[in-house]
Amino acid sequence: MTLSPLFLAEPRALQLKLAAGVWAVVCAPLLNRADEVLGVLSIHFAAPHRPNDRDLRLLDLLALQAADYLERKGPKEAQARLAAIVEGSEDAILTKTLDGNIRSWNAGAERIFGYQAEEVIGQPVTLFVPPERADEEIQILERLRRGESVAHYETMRVTKDGRKLDVSLTNSPVKDRHGRFVGSSRIVRDIGELVRARQVLVRSREDLERLVEERTAKLREALADLEHMSYSMIHDMRAPLRTMASFATLVEEKYAASLPPEGLDYFRRIREAANRLDRLVTGAINYNQVVRHDLAVTPVEVGKLLRGMIETYPNVQPAVADINIEFNELVVLGNESLLTQCFGNLLGNAVKFVAPGVKPHIRVWAESLQSLKSKVQSQQTEEDAVGHVTPSKQHASGASALNPQPSTIGSASGSKTTASASPKRRTKESSPCSSACTGKVNLPAPASASPLSVKPPSAWAAGPVWNLNPAQEADSGSSCLRRPRPIIERS
Amino acid sequence: MFHFTGAHAMKTYQTAILVVEDDANDQELIKVAFGGLGLTSAVHFVNDGREAIAYLMGDGKYSEPTEYPYPSFIITDLKMPRASGFEVLEHLKANPAFAIIPTVVLTASTDPDDIKKSYALGASSYHVKPHTLAELSSLIKVLHDYWMICEVPEVNAAGKQLPTDPKGKLGEKFP
After folding, report:
1. Which of A292, A313, A334 marks a domain boundary?
2. Domain assignment present for A112
């Protein structure tokens, strides 16, 4: 028995045929016009058989016909499958010739554009293009000729009844077996809903922004009302204080002779208490101002600021105090006007709280603070008082250079105007001290040159804050925040 | 009404100061402050804006000019019942006869809006009432000394502004 290559290719076939009682098989390949093998035609005999020439010629003829049939029928099946897919699609799928004329038109296209296939086949695809977009098809064709696909091209097209549709076009070149551009296919998707959804989104965002604007405006109004109330309240509160302080003074001045020292002392206490309360009350006004306004933060040349102060403020001039500034130039980020007040107060207090008869020596220097979060130029405030350890009179909330914020000085008993960073951080008033005291201010180094706008307290609370209470005060160097050396030191 | 004898008479006509202040304690303190200066001017006190306007217009009990002389200088508080300092300022501004009277606001308010409004209504200056008596005294002294030496256009013997020619010598127009 000679074994045909057929059986070598498919080993089970031999067993199957033997089992079926086949004794002989005659095969012929089915070849198409390009000599490609499409399949095999086999004749099976139940008895051993040797084909004669006539049988073979018949086989060849049958093979030819079968090949022909396959050639025509096979691709047609695939074609039919594809055609079914195209027809069943919701999208419009059309094919065009090289010149842009419509060659095929599916059911989806009929539905979307309203034209039946017969009406449009052979027509140019520009039939659906609105006049203002006339050039589009030319450009698309150009790109297709270069072999590019033009995908998800959003544009508008016109239907049979004149409606304008928002559509997305995907165009692909169609090439023949040899890679030649023979036409193009196009899928047209109706994106009306998508476009409308986008519009709704934009409108929603606009509505939201408007809502936010309105709410912000309301908040601003409320804040303004509050501020106005504060001014009013503070104004009313200062009146009786003025009365108390002034009339106590009058008694002390006019009736000193007729009062025992104890009586005079009582009036002195009344006067001083009234003065202290007045300072507290006026301090509250300044807190208001800080809360209300967004403070501009800019690079500030501290050396220049301090030297200017020393020249013009009467209480810190060379005749009155020895102030030594140990740097020439130091630029920090801060609000200039608040910094002026802050330094003014620090210097003023440093000069004021000295033992009588002693000329104050004040040393001002700066050091960079390596904090856990970021680099900050630091100068910190703490003051000791004779007889008892009190928390700093003034201290700042620091800020990281990553999120620069202004430094403000909090003061419970500050003189003129100092902004309070947070009520929690207010401190007791210090009495004069004879030992060295230090004042510190934490300020950010400029991260950039451009001015910034900053928000009040709630944002400051996020930065490294000072929590100076008597317990901590005594324990120096306990936290890295307090390690840096002070800027203003009085000997 | 208080009369103070003074060392120097700075004006050739009778001067009077009107103080508009509602708080009795503040009034008393201002009196004390003026007392310490030794003035030739009469200082008159009224308790609110309405009284002040009545004084200026010579209404009701203020009709007697010898008793209630024309003020050559006014110090006014802002927050007062019945008519506030702003209304006093408005009245002064609206009446050309009072245009020359320097009017100083003396108030405890530090509200920047009040400051702006006062100047907009024609106040000559705005002062925050100091907390201590010493500061108040020195402020009163400064105000008095300053305003009493300034020049005014034609006035009569009582210090009241005379209606003047709205055109100047060179043809300038005065409002």
Report:
1. A292
2. yes
Average pLDDT in the B69-78 region? 89
Question: Is residue A196 in a domain?
Answer: no
From residue A240, give the alpha-carbon distance in Å to each of A185, A248, B75, B128, B132.
Answer: 91, 12, 20, 15, 12
Domain that holds residue B34: 2-148
Q: Does A404 fall in a domain?
A: yes
Cβ-Cβ contacts under 8 Å, B81 against chain A: none
Is B15 inside any structural domain?
yes
Q: What is the mean pLDDT of residues A10-14?
A: 75
Q: Would the pLDDT of A161 be above 90?
A: yes
pLDDT digits (tens, 9 = 90+) for A452-461: 333 333 333 3
Domain with residue B28: its CATH number is: 3.40.50.2300
Check A246 against B29: CB less than 8 A apart: yes
Does B19 or A55 have the greater pLDDT score?
A: B19
Residue-number span of the structural domain to which A69 is assigned:
5-85
pLDDT of A206 > 70? The answer is yes
Residue of A25, A20, A28 lying closest to A1 (CA atoms):
A25
- pLDDT at residue B123, rounded to an integer: 93
The distance of B108 to chain A (nearest Cα, Å) reads: 5
Q: Are A366 and A485 in contact (CB under 8 A)?
A: no
Query: Is residue B53 a contact partner of residue B88, using CB atoms and an 8 Å limit?
Result: yes
What is the rounded CA–CA span in Å between residue B135 and residue A102? 98
Q: What is the distance in angstroms between the Cα of A260 and the nearest Cα belonging to chain B? A: 22
A41 shares its domain with A122: no
Q: Is the pLDDT of residue A387 over 60?
A: no
